[in-house]
Design a protein that fits this description.
The complex is a heterodimer of chains A (92) and B (887).
Chain A (H helix, E strand, L loop, with lengths): L25 H21 L2 H7 L4 E2 L2 E2 H21 L6
Helix pairs in contact in A: 1-3
Chain B lengths: L3 H27 L9 H8 L5 H4 L1 H9 L5 H11 L5 H11 L4 H8 L4 H34 L8 H17 L10 H29 L12 H8 L7 H17 L1 H9 L4 H32 L9 H8 L3 H40 L10 H25 L9 H9 L2 H10 L5 H23 L4 H11 L2 H4 L7 H23 L4 H11 L17 H12 L1 H11 L9 H27 L5 H78 L4 H32 L8 E4 H11 L1 H7 L2 E6 L4 E4 L1 H17 L6 E9 L2 E8 L31 H11 L3 E8 L2 E9 L5 H10 L1
Parallel strand pairs in B: 2-4
Antiparallel strand pairs in B: 1-3, 4-5, 5-7, 6-7
The chains are: A mainly alpha (92), B mainly alpha (887).
Chain lengths: 92, 887
């Protein structure tokens, strides 16, 4: 059987199957763009060896070394931030 | 230990479930009802094909051996997804617009649809991924062995897994050549598998946390839970390079692994899914990683020393008697292994059939009946079987050997060779085909020599020699030696990148290359019609070609959509569309070659170049427009500032002038009033009265002269003073002025020396010129100082009549010099001198009105020279006639 291709516009853009629910205000979108830019660059820095060396202390939290606590916390914060920055993003 | 039949039954049942899921979703997709199933979360879960059995079992092993280093494998992809706005979005958009079928197709498309590039990428992928598949098969058989113990030898689970997977992929991955290369059934199945493996690992992780509460078992590798956690949560501080290399490799793998490219880019249906995955997938990885820690610690404290850390995931629940949990762990590992095998073999098969086999099939001519589609699908099936056979053979050959343990990272390093060409192609307009070819080739060669072959014990001596040549002795071998993975990765990737950049900069580029560069680099902000190569083709030729590749049904559909008559020539847009459709079956490179054979002529380079030029010009214009505007603004502001300054100066001068004029008028008026009062009040004798009246009269005359001067000057300045031009001899006028001042000079005891050259004909107003000259001569006489003469010169210099008035007086005071010819200058030689000092201002206005200029040529304690220059008349008829008259 022949499978129909998904509907595409002339330029090959995907036709949006459903309209976006709530358009974001311009300022919110701009601030999200900034958060995205910061995350793209700050992400690698947070996990660089020199940064990790700073976090590597002889302290433990429930027996877990400080370094592991740092990495997992930074990771989780990054996830939360990128979730905020990507929320309700239109397909452009 | 569990019984073999039970484990085999559960395993087979699980694989059967995969078939059901894939089948149902495929059915739904065929009737258009799967779109809600294939949503953002499913997309995210399909990305988790990244986590193979190498993750499921191996992460715990790595944590035990190297502490937190295992996190790099999950941090890399997290960073890539955090930058999804820059990278993944663009990749997905281009892949959709260009109908890309694989990563090899993507890179070859970017570099002018180069077949060499496609073949290179395919070969590197095969070399990297086949051992990786072997690793998965091995993981299944080893986990089965660990679970069943004795009795496992009789069943070759790796073989049966390979066979089942080949069957699965062939069944769901090669049913058709769909418009995009998406496979909904397979995506649904691997999304399901991702849920299973995460749930399994989390369950074992929680179990391990509970087990840790029991404390350490005697005879275990580590004696206390705290020590185990410290060991697992530590990081070798001196090896930052390895940390960076591993993070970079896993970041690159996130898009360069053929299976990741398949699920992340080709199977993407909506860019919003990427936005969701940008945090949901890192969260998935986070959960996987966090489950690893307690499992590793539990294995270290509860299992006897020497237990295999790579199997802790299975052996921790098994040793605690939690058999059902061990079974869940086995299923989780199975799902991790099979999902990787499924997608990787499919992606490889597409690349093999499109880039290695299809070009060979195209040379055969007996395909016209059914189209090439059947052959392409058949090749894909063969390729899948071949890839899995190869993988199985690998696993047999290196069974239990150390070779496969490191293959995960070596495969990452292999596919990372695509990164320079892939990323450069997205963002660097000048990246060229030659660069991609040379970079990929050199990178692959070095990767082979420094990483892949040595991992199988081949060419180890060569590698040692190579290191000894390249590195300082203490880094080449011994305790401080550079890690082999770091060495191989850094060397191959830097040479790859360097050659890529250099060759791109210096190699010539074809029109197709440049066109594709524009289409890729500008993919996110392209407006208007997209540029196509200008080609026209005979409709019937093109139809025959399409039929040959796609079969009659597809070909008819395609040409019916166009709706034009049979004999109408087809335009370039339609040719491009047909090429894209054909590319789905045989890849962009082959499709381009085929269509170019049919499409007429190759004047395309000119048109393509023009389109590119136009586009570039637009961009340059926009940039220039901004620059021009700011320059204009600056200039306007500058002009305004200058005008403002001039106005301010004028205002100041006006004030000064007014105060000067009132002062000048006050002096004679005071005198007039004083003498008039005397005449009125006092009884004066007649001679005194006459003298007073004479003074009043002369002061009134001075006032009149002052007012006349002011009026004269303002008329001159406003251009309202009438000037009657006539032909004059400047020398004669100077002589006349001297004659007029003869009496005044004599009274002042000054003689006037005349030194004139006759015949200095100019056009001027006689009275006005005389006014100027008289003013200058009278000034010279007035300020003759101790000298008893002044000197007047008239001469012709460089087309000008130059009249000079020279005195030998004390000179003009320096503070007066800048304002000498303004009406506010005051008296030339001091405030107490007679006259309002408007003379020179009037003189300047007059001379300028006559088209000449007046200046103070020289001044000093030994005298001053004022100079008037007026343009000499060109030799006009009257002047020319003069010599003839003389003759």
């Amino acid at each position: 059987m022949i499978n129909e291709p998904p509907p595409t516009t002339v330029a090959g853009e995907p036709a949006s199957p459903q309209p976006r629910t709530t358009p974001l205000p311009r300022r919110a979108r701009a601030s999200r763009r900034h958060v995205r830019a910061v995350l793209s660059t700050a992400g690698p820095i947070v996990f660089l060896p020199p940064t990790l060396a700073v976090a590597d202390r002889d302290v433990t939290l429930f027996g877990i070394p400080a370094l592991a606590v740092y990495i997992f916390s930074a990771w989780l914060i990054g996830i939360i931030l990128i979730a905020f920055a990507s929320r309700g993003e239109p397909a452009d | 230990m569990l019984s073999a039949p039970l484990v085999l039954t559960i395993g087979a049942g699980y694989l059967g479930l995969l078939f059901v899921i894939a089948f149902v979703v495929d059915r739904l997709a065929a009737t258009g009802r799967a779109s809600s199933l294939l949503s953002g979360p499913v997309y995210t879960l399909s990305l988790a094909v990244y986590c193979t059995s190498w993750t499921f079992f191996g992460a715990v092993g790595t944590a035990v051996r190297s502490g937190l280093e295992f996190l790099t494998i999950y941090i890399g992809p997290t960073l890539v997804l955090m930058a999804w706005w820059l990278l993944l979005r663009k990749l997905a958009r281009i892949a959709k617009a260009r109908r890309v079928t694989s990563i090899a197709d993507f890179i070859s498309s970017r570099y002018g649809k180069s077949r060499t590039v496609a073949i290179l990428v395919t070969l590197i992928a095969i070399a990297s991924i086949t051992p990786y598949i072997a690793l998965q098969l091995l993981a299944v058989s080893r986990s089965y062995g660990a679970l069943v113990g004795v009795g496992a030898e009789g069943t070759d689970t790796a073989f049966w897994t390979a066979v089942t997977m080949a069957f699965f992929v062939i069944m769901f991955g090669t049913r058709r050549l769909s418009a995009d290369e998406s496979q909904p059934g397979i995506v649904a199945a691997i999304a399901f598998e991702s849920v299973v493996k995460l749930a399994a690992l989390l369950a074992i992780g929680l179990f391990a946390v509970a087990v840790l509460q029991l404390g350490a078992q005697p005879g275990a590798a580590v004696e206390s839970v705290d020590a185990a956690l410290a060991k697992v949560g530590a990081l070798a501080r001196d090896d930052g390079a390895r940390w960076i290399v591993l993070t970079t490799l896993s970041a690159a793998a996130m898009i360069c692994l053929p299976r990741q490219f398949q699920v992340a880019v080709l199977e993407n249906r909506d860019e919003r899914h990427i936005a969701l995955a940008s945090w949901l997938f890192p969260l998935y990885l986070f959960l996987i990683a966090i489950a690893v820690l307690p499992i590793a610690a539990a294995g270290l404290t509860r299992l006897p020393a020497g237990a295999e850390p790579d199997l802790f995931v299975l052996t921790v629940p098994l040793s605690e008697g939690a058999h059902s949990l061990a079974l869940i762990a086995f299923i989780g590992g199975l799902s991790a292994a099979t999902s990787m095998v499924i997608v990787a073999s499919l992606a490889l098969a597409v690349m093999i059939s499109n880039h290695l086999i299809a070009p060979l099939l195209l040379s055969r001519s007996d395909t016209a009946g059914t189209g090439l589609k059947g052959s392409v699908l058949f090749t894909r099936r063969i390729a899948i079987a071949l890839v899995l056979t190869l993988g199985y053979l690998y696993s047999r050959v290196s069974d239990g050997g150390a070779g496969l343990a490191s293959i995960g990272l070596i495969a990452f390093a292999g596919v990372a060779q695509f990164a320079p060409a892939l990323l450069g192609g997205l963002f660097w307009r000048d990246a060229a085909r030659a660069g991609a070819k040379v970079g990929l080739f050199a990178g692959a060669l070095l990767w082979l020599a420094t990483l892949l072959l040595p991992s199988f014990g081949v060419g180890v001596g060569f590698l040692e020699g190579f290191r000894a040549v390249l590195l300082p002795a203490h880094l080449a071998s011994g305790p401080d030696a550079i890690d082999p993975l770091v060495f191989g990765t850094v060397l191959s990737l830097s040479v790859n990148t360097a050659l890529y950049v250099l060759a791109s900069l210096f190699a010539p580029r074809s029109a197709v290359d440049q066109l594709q560069a524009t289409l890729f680099v500008d993919a996110l902000h392209r407006g208007g019609p997209e540029p196509t190569l200008r080609r026209s083709a005979d409709r019937r030729d093109l139809f025959r070609l399409t039929q040959r590749i796609l079969g009659p049904v597809e070909a008819h559909r395609l040409f019916l959509e166009d709706g034009a008559a049979d004999d109408a020539p087809v335009d370039s847009a339609f040719v491009a569309k047909v090429e894209r459709e054909i590319a789905l079956a045989v890849g962009a490179a082959s499709a381009h070659t085929l269509v170019t054979q049919v499409a007429k002529g190759e004047p395309l380079s000119v048109d393509a170049a023009i389109a590119l030029l136009a586009e570039t010009r637009e961009a340059i214009h926009a940039a220039e427009g901004l620059g021009v505007r700011s320059v204009e603004l600056e200039r306007t502001a500058e002009e305004l500032r200058a005008a403002n300054n001039t106005l301010t100066e004028l205002l100041t001068e006006k004030d000064e002038f007014l105060s000067r004029v009132s002062h000048e008028m006050r002096t004679p008026l005071t005198a007039v009033r004083a003498f008039a009062d005397l005449l009125k009040d006092a009884e004066l004798d007649a001679p005194r009265a006459r003298r007073f009246v004479a003074i009043i009269s002369s002061e009134a005359e001075r006032l009149t002269r002052l007012l006349d001067d002011i009026l004269d000057l303002s008329r001159l300045e406003a251009g309202r003073a009438p000037i009657n031009f006539e032909r004059l001899d400047a020398a004669a006028e100077l002589t006349a002025a001297a004659a007029a001042m003869e009496g005044f000079a004599e009274r002042s005891g000054v003689s006037i020396d005349l030194n004139t050259q006759a015949g200095l004909f100019i056009r001027a107003d006689r009275d006005r010129l005389k006014q100027v000259l008289v003013n200058l001569v009278s000034n010279a006489v007035k300020y003759h100082g101790s000298a008893s003469s002044i000197r007047l010169h008239a001469a012709a210099e460089a087309g000008e009549a130059v009249l000079r008035v020279e005195d030998f007086g004390p000179g003009v005071s320096p503070e007066l010099l800048p304002r000498l010819f303004t009406k506010f200058a005051g008296s030339v030689h001091g405030p107490n001198s007679a006259g309002a000092g408007l003379g020179l201002a009037i003189a300047r206005e007059i001379v300028q009105g006559l088209g000449g200029n007046i200046s103070l040529e020289r001044t000093g304690p030994d005298g001053s020279v004022f100079c008037v220059r007026l343009p000499l008349l060109a030799a006009d008829p009257a002047q020319r006639s003069k010599p003839s008259l003389d003759a």
